[in-house]
Write a structure and sequence with these properties.
Blueprint: H1 2-5, E1 9-12, E2 22-25, E3 34-44, E4 47-57, E5 66-70, E6 73-75, E7 79-89, E8 94-100, E9 107-114, E10 125-134, E11 143-149, E12 159-161, E13 167-169, E14 176-180, E15 186-187, E16 192-197, E17 205-212, E18 220-223, E19 227-230, E20 239-246, E21 251-258, E22 260-261, E23 268-271, E24 281-286, E25 289-294, H2 296-334, H3 379-390, H4 398-417, H5 443-446
Parallel strand pairs: 6-13, 15-22
Antiparallel strand pairs: 1-2, 3-4, 5-7, 7-10, 8-9, 8-11, 11-12, 14-16, 16-19, 17-18, 17-20, 20-21, 23-25, 24-25
């Protein structure tokens, strides 16, 4: 090792003005490339110290001189050949190949070629690498890049990009059918939009075909547009709608099932089980589906309850109006004026009451409270009874008195059977003049 550096090195020791130790290599050769360590042993404060550091002697990598991609056009799953050559410097030089996807700025490493034992006259390592890469449809539109680096730039050194993007041809993928609105079934009269979406290079063509549910073999082709519109669908529009995507590479298809059924009535709703029906609903089955239908008796019950409530409210207000009317009439009667006079022959004239007065001095138009046998007799009857009792014979004529009393009782009984038409409440009379209908004691018993 000493012979390698004889007469080519110069060591500058630390001095008072500079504490750095410097090693100078002269007339460099390839073997001078490597890592150097500096070791310092010094004494301070009665102690020995050691200090080491590393230093690398390297040659820079240069930009690749050649980078080829072949072919630029190929089909999916075919092989792409990439070749790159560059002076990668020293030590530990290598070549890396990167892929930049379409619509992306991120480099993805796909290949690395390490150095060999071949060194040039200036000690720089040279690499010529070839790499094969199987493409996929995701590589369509991608670019590739080759870079050279060593220990000085381990991640990515000087690079060279391909000038043309790769075109990868592939057939349509399985089409995706988008339904608008997206439902499991549709009702008669609805509109549906079906859109068929796929991906291919070159672009694909679309064919729509229809197979009704009541046919098992034949399907009819009726559209070549990406979007299919069905307006005012009917029951016969139910079936399988197949979208077929075609290009020069391959063909692919997908099928959407359209179920069409009659519209539900306003009082129906679709369910999975009859257990979901409420207390006011009944379960019906139609076309293999179950529906909850509002019971018609529920409307009858609601109307009946409403009419009953309306009837009771009307009765209540009519009774209140009637009661107010009666109270109004009663107050009107109490304020009506008393007649100035009555005819003398009127049965209601005070003279006809045989001089009977109440405790307050008001003439009584009927029997007095003491006349318990008068019943419903008129004042005129009471007066006749007084007159006849005044003409009774002396006490020694008992037989005739008995006969007279019997006659009077008979006459009184007949009076009780008469229709009481005279002792009627007169609305024009003051309330204080009402006839007192309480029974009075029999006048004969008082004699």
């Amino acid at each position: 090792m000493e012979s390698l550096y004889n007469n080519r090195t110069e060591l500058i020791a630390p001095t008072e003005s500079s504490l750095s130790a410097v090693l100078i290599l002269k007339e460099l050769v390839c073997d001078d490339v490597g890592v150097y360590r500096c070791w310092v042993d010094y004494f301070s404060k009665n102690r020995n110290y050691e200090l080491t550091s590393l230093s690398t002697v390297a040659l820079k990598a240069t930009k690749p001189s050649n980078f080829g991609v072949f072919p630029y056009e190929l089909q999916e799953n075919q092989t792409l050949t990439l070749s790159c050559s560059a002076y990668v410097g020293a030590p530990n030089g290598n070549i890396k190949i990167w892929k930049i996807a379409r619509n992306s700025t991120t480099n993805v490493l796909i290949f690395t070629a390490n150095t060999s034992d071949f060194k040039t006259e200036n000690c720089s390592e040279f690499i010529n690498a070839t790499f094969t890469y199987t493409v996929s449809r995701d590589d369509n539109g991608a670019m590739f890049l080759c870079s050279s680096q060593n220990v000085l730039n381990e991640d990515e050194g000087p690079s060279l990009e391909s000038q043309i993007r790769v075109s990868v041809k592939y057939g349509p993928g399985k089409p995706s059918i988008v339904l608008t609105p997206n439902k499991s079934s549709y009702y008669v009269g609805e509109d549906i939009r079906l859109q068929c979406v796929s991906d291919s290079n070159p672009p694909y063509n679309i064919t729509w075909s229809f197979l009704p549910f009541n046919h098992s073999t034949e399907s009819s082709v009726f559209s070549y547009e990406i979007e299919l519109k069905l307006k005012d669908i009917q029951l016969e529009n139910a079936g399988n709608y197949t979208c077929t995507a075609v290009n020069e590479i391959s063909t692919n298809n997908n099928t959407a099932v359209i179920n069409v059924k009659e519209p539900l009535e306003n009082n129906k709703r679709t369910i999975f089980s009859c257990d979901q029906c409420g207390f006011s609903e009944i379960c019906e089955k139609k076309n293999g589906e179950e529906y909850c239908v509002t019971s018609p008796w529920m409307f009858v019950a609601i109307i009946f309850i409403f009419l009953c409530a309306l009837f009771f409210v009307a009765i209540y207000f009519l009774r209140r109006v009637h009661r107010k009317s009666i109270l109004h009439k009663s107050s009107t009667k109490k304020t009506s004026p008393r007649p100035e006079s009555l005819p003398l022959d009127s049965p209601h004239h005070p003279s006809e009451s045989a001089g009977l007065l109440s405790e307050s001095g008001i003439p009584i138009l009927g029997p007095t409270p003491d006349d318990t046998e008068a019943g419903y007799s008129t004042p005129k009857d009471v007066r006749e009874m007084h007159e006849q009792s005044a003409m009774l014979p002396p006490p020694d004529e008992r037989a005739e008195i008995t006969t007279t009393c019997n006659q009077e009782n008979t006459q009184y009984a007949e009076v009780q059977k008469k229709q009481q038409t005279e002792n009627v409440y007169d609305p024009d009379w003051n309330e204080n003049e009402l006839v007192n209908l309480a029974p009075e004691p029999n006048i004969l018993n008082l004699i």
